Amino acid sequence: MTEPKPRLLSLDFFRGLTVAAMILVNNPGSWGHIYAPLEHAEWNGCTPTDLIFPFFLWIVGVSIAFAMSSSKTDPLTHQKTIIKAIKRGIILYLLGFFLAIFGKIISAITDGRSIWEAFQTVRLLGVLQRIGIVFIISSIIFIKASNKTIFKILIVILALYWALMTFIPVPGVGYPNMEKETNLAAWIDRGILTEAHTWASSKTWDPEGILSTLPAVGTCLFGILVGVWMRRKDVDNPTKVAWLFTAGITSVILGLLWDLQFPINKALWTSSYVLYAGGLASIGLALCYWIIDVQGYKKFTTPFVVYGVNAITVFFLAGLMPRVLNLIQITKPDGTKTGLLVRFYETCYSPFFSPVNASLVWAITYVLGFYVLLYFMYKKNIIIKV
């Protein structure tokens, strides 16, 4: 815990808005009853929900530019900063791994099985794991490379990933393709991670898989370049905003054009998706920066700023809480048992709303409940960093 340092309010607001949206879509009352905008696209395409994760990685990039710029200009601190970034990235990975294995360990203990069985089927990659890996790679690139080189690396990443996915024949298939189970990224995941350690909902591919982490790094580098631009002292605010809007709109257009040949796809994190989502994030931050930091309209920001300053903390807790509470088993009138949180939803929400609205109200309640905790932390100047 540490006292908060002066921060870019619009960035905290934008980060908080993103994390609150992430918790909203990750915690419906029922996965079978969700409004369409709160679901991921079936495969190709992009819903508002598909923008949340790339927005967060993009924001990580902006934050790297703000937090590490002084170290970048001082070669004596390069090694220390890189070691610190590696430690933070490893902690993020381990937090994600803990969420993945927590329930499996409890189930193994409850059923009298060996804990080792949990490790044999645990998912190795995931959201926090990807954030940690991308943070390490992007931090090293930022510290070691010039801004022009970072831009070139971004271009190379997008072009290389496009070439790999569209020109390399997939072993066992014989031709390059973009289908769920037969694309190159899925083949690599099955070969290296094995089906036992991929996403449980698919078993044959992972939306946070190995190869697709490459363009995810591109998303973070995109954010770094924006952060470098926002930190410039020789450019006035109107110019910063105007160029950021221009870059964002241009990136969206390029992403949509590329989509005609290399479809926008979150699960594969395609290059067109990087440009499209990164462009929209640029537009979003430009708007927030102009309204909040330049024009000074700040009163409405608090609810999301409290999410933004403790983003990883609330994301981790939001993932851990249902796992813990559902360990408490409640016996239903018919004699069957269910988790405490599930039973609470069935008793206090399902009877009073239509299925899809009950699911939405539950998710909103979840967000508001964590807001109470985060507001307390915010008022006490408590920021938990990893």
TrEMBL record:
Domain of life (superkingdom): Bacteria
Transmembrane feature ranges: 12-31, 51-69, 90-110, 122-143, 150-170, 209-229, 241-261, 273-292, 304-325, 359-378
Keywords, ordered alphabetically: Membrane, Transmembrane, Transmembrane helix
Protein name listed in UniProt: N-acetylglucosamine transporter
